[in-house]
């Protein structure tokens, strides 16, 4: 818009929301400036958004500071407003100017521009973002022409099978755009390697869930791409799912897997990053200055991707450069109110500094990132002895100890038996990972200040800040190791092996150790479950089942033998791998632990000896048992904590189980006896498995699905009937139903016919409530929690055909001995 200047007070590189806001404010203040943009248009990031995209203006409670207007609306309208206001504000923009290097010192920088004369500037503001550096797919076939990293106009694509890889806002918005017009007839699938959308804004997640419910988008959770290839009928995408490999048709891949900072370019200027991680951000002061004096970083490159945040930073950085050192960030009033209840009447800056220094998972967060995190967090102050939370209380948030320490009551019968957790550490991570109720009561050991991260905020932090993810992993590994192997071990005893522990994702069916192999690692099952098999007569024979929290591999480590059995994942799982040498070092220092493991080894060797001694007599009985075990794993027992099985040789089809279930639950049975699958004499009816890591808990907006003290997964009265749980359950055990009327007293029902009585709700009532537009609630088995005597279905069975068991008790070699003896 103007001729290229030779020298300016401030040079702003990049015309995204942050750079535009900075340049507009510099112009308004009369500062000599230049806005350098390598393309021929403003705000390339927004410009590249898909056509018609609705741009959000979040967070809604944050005041906008900028000379430019910004409200939620269509991409085109926002760009038009900014183009007009930049021209009206006489902002000096240099288009088609690619910066190749920045040299010099504060007060006299030289900005080299490809094909143009250099520009000298007193200060440099980098607002270059990260969008030009997308994270590339790292799978076989990623170089095929089917893959693209940008979606300009979703309306250009018709009648294609399109897979979107990436579960952040960009991926969700691309998937929604491709599925917006039914006339396009696209089959759109989006992949999410986790079970929740921690990286995305809540509004986008809600829209995606609605599209999924309507059948417009296929959402694949706990799924990763494994290979892209050309088949006979076109493209094929091989997926690693929670149940194993699967291949789907794929005409096009839209990869929205994030981006990384242009590190080489920034470091060449003299700017240091917070760590060596590829996703780390530059180290910044509260005034956005880098380790290179005079060079400031704002916007997405500073770790702030939200537009409103970026625009505020652009305004603020110019204020700082013009001498306004008293300016407070726009979120200051929000944080002041949030921190008002903390002791000492300290300012916001005091607490932010303390949180950043004391809390281990915040160590590599910039002041800007920490402020943003605090907007989604809650702070607490507790007096000595005060309870933070109690055993069996629902909750999936994670707590960080900023000041003080806590005591964990590890014995439910004796509150005096406690374990301390020190300042700077975390607690509540078990509920975060598993969704289970609180496992212990925790009290303040002294004056205590904590930061409570909601589940979404914690998962987003772990996913986007590598150092935080490492710290949470290390702490959870340490605690799981001590819990499992105990025997008087202390944190100091296991520090060496914990540092070497590695969390490994395992796909369903993948072998972790193989019979006859000579490796020496030991494994702890963090999530999921394993099957132990031994080869007999040329085919695998099922030995046992290992649920989450079990360990395996210790026999080869202790006595140096080869692997005596094969261990493979029953479902998609996570294991922690510990080097055998490090585990041996721990054993050498703890005779009690060695003795315990030797006893466990003795039992396992007895099982192996039994199998070997009878290998000639197994025959078809062994085959039948192994096939039965695999059938049960395929039908959910591999991730169950409690499963209903029916022995069809004893079942007389009286349906007492269903009737008893209905009587116990307002006339609505949670059990369908006839549905489900059978193998041999075993039937797995349609009833909740109460999974170790429930799929139904993912994406429950009101957090209505909880886990009870006995492991039962239940849905409370806050259910809003959205149906997410029903869609997420792979076993079809949840249904949406109208909430039945309150049951009348026996006499009113008997003499006046008021409302539904014993058993199912009345036919008339059900017929009146089949309107799909009427509010529904999700219902499922809750194991008759709170009902004396336990599950009604089992109590009501006259023949003993119905049993509820945990898989580790059912799938054991004991059953095998019964079959073959």
TrEMBL record:
CDD domains documented for this protein = CAP_ED, DMSOR_beta_like
Q: Respond yes or no to whether keyword Transport is given for this record.
A: yes
Q: Which domain of life is it from?
A: Bacteria
Secretion signal span: none
Q: Where is the Cyclic nucleotide-binding domain?
A: 361-462, 485-604
| One Pfam short name | Pyr_redox_3
Alphabetically sorted, this entry's keywords are: 4Fe-4S, Electron transport, Iron, Iron-sulfur, Metal-binding, Transport
Question: In this protein, which residues make up the domain named 4Fe-4S ferredoxin-type?
Answer: 642-674, 679-710, 711-739, 775-808
Q: What is this protein called?
A: Oxidoreductase
The record lists the organism as Erythrobacter westpacificensis
């Amino acid at each position: 818009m103007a001729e290229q200047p030779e020298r300016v007070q401030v040079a702003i590189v990049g015309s995204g929301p942050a750079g535009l806001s900075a340049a507009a404010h510099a112009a308004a203040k009369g500062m000599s400036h230049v806005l350098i943009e390598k393309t021929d248009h403003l705000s390339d990031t927004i410009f590249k958004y898909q056509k018609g995209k609705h741009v959000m203006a979040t967070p809604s409670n944050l005041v906008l500071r900028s000379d430019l207007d910004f409200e939620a609306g269509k991409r085109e309208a926002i760009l038009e407003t900014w183009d007009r206001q930049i021209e009206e504000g006489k902002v000096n923009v240099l288009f088609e100017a690619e910066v190749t290097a920045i040299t010099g010192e504060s007060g006299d920088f030289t900005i080299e521009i490809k094909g143009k004369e250099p520009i000298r500037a007193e200060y440099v503001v980098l607002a270059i973002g990260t969008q030009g550096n997308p994270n590339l797919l790292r799978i076989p076939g990623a170089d095929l022409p089917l893959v693209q990293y940008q979606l300009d106009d979703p309306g250009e694509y018709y009648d294609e099978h399109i897979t979107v890889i990436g579960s952040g806002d960009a991926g969700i918005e691309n998937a929604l755009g491709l599925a917006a017009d039914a006339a396009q007839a696209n089959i759109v699938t989006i992949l999410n390697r986790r079970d929740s959308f921690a990286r995305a804004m809540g509004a986008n997640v809600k829209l995606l869930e609605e599209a999924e419910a309507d059948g417009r988008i296929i959402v694949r959770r706990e799924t990763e791409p494994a290979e892209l290839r050309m088949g006979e009928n076109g493209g094929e995408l091989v997926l690693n799912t929670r149940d194993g490999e699967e291949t789907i048709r794929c005409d096009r891949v839209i990869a929205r897997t994030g981006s990384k900072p242009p590190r080489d370019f920034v470091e060449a200027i003299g700017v240091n990053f917070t760590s060596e991680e590829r996703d780390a951000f530059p180290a910044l002061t509260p005034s956005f200055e880098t380790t290179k004096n005079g060079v400031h970083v704002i916007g997405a490159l500073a770790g702030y991707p939200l537009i409103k945040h970026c625009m505020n930073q652009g305004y603020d950085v110019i204020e700082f450069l013009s001498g306004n050192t008293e300016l407070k960030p726009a979120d200051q009033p929000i944080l002041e109110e949030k921190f008002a209840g903390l002791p000492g009447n300290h300012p916001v800056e005091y607490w932010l500094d303390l949180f950043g220094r004391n809390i281990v998972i915040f160590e590599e967060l910039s002041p800007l990132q920490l402020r943003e995190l605090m907007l989604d967090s809650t702070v607490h102050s507790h007096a000595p002895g005060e309870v933070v939370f109690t055993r069996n209380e629902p909750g999936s948030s994670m707590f960080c100890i900023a000041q003080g320490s806590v005591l964990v009551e590890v014995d439910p019968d004796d509150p005096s038996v406690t374990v301390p957790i020190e300042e700077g550490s975390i607690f509540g991570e078990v509920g975060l990972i598993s969704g289970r109720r609180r496992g212990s009561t925790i009290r303040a050991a002294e004056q205590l200040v904590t930061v409570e991260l909601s589940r979404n905020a914690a998962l987003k932090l772990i996913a986007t800040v590598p150092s935080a993810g490492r710290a949470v992993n290390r702490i959870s590994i340490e605690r799981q190791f001590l819990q499992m192997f105990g025997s008087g071990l202390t944190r100091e005893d296991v520090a060496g092996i914990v540092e070497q522990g590695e969390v490994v994702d395992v796909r369903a069916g993948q072998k972790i150790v193989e019979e006859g192999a000579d490796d020496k690692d030991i494994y702890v099952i963090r999530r999921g479950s394993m099957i132990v098999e031994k080869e007999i007569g040329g085919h695998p024979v099922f030995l046992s089942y290992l649920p989450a929290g079990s360990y395996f591999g210790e026999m080869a480590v202790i006595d140096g033998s080869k692997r005596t059995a094969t261990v493979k994942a029953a479902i998609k799982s996570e294991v922690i791998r510990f080097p055998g040498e490090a585990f041996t070092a721990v054993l050498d220092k703890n005779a009690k632990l060695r003795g315990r493991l030797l006893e466990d080894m003795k039992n396992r060797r007895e099982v192996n000896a039994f199998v070997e001694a009878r290998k000639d007599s197994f025959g078809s009985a062994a085959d039948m048992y192994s096939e039965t075990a695999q059938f049960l794993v395929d039908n959910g027992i591999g991730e169950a904590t409690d499963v209903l099985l029916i022995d069809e040789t004893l079942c007389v089809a009286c349906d007492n189980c269903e009737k008893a279930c209905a009587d116990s639950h307002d006339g609505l049975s949670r059990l369908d006896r006839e549905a489900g699958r059978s193998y041999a004499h075993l039937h797995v009816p349609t009833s909740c498995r109460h999974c170790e890591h429930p799929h139904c808990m993912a994406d429950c907006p009101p957090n209505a699905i909880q886990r009870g003290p006995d492991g039962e997964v239940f849905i409370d009265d806050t259910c809003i009937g959205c149906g997410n749980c029903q869609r997420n359950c792979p076993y079809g055990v949840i249904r949406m139903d109208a909430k039945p009327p309150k049951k009348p007293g026996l006499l009113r029902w008997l003499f006046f016919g008021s409302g539904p009585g014993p058993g199912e709700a009345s036919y008339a009532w059900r017929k009146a409530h089949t309107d799909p537009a009427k509010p529904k609630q999700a219902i499922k088995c809750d194991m008759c929690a709170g009902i004396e005597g336990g599950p009604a279905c089992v109590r009501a069975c006259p023949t003993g055909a119905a049993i509820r068991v945990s898989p580790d008790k059912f799938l054991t070699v004991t059953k095998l001995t019964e079959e073959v003896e």
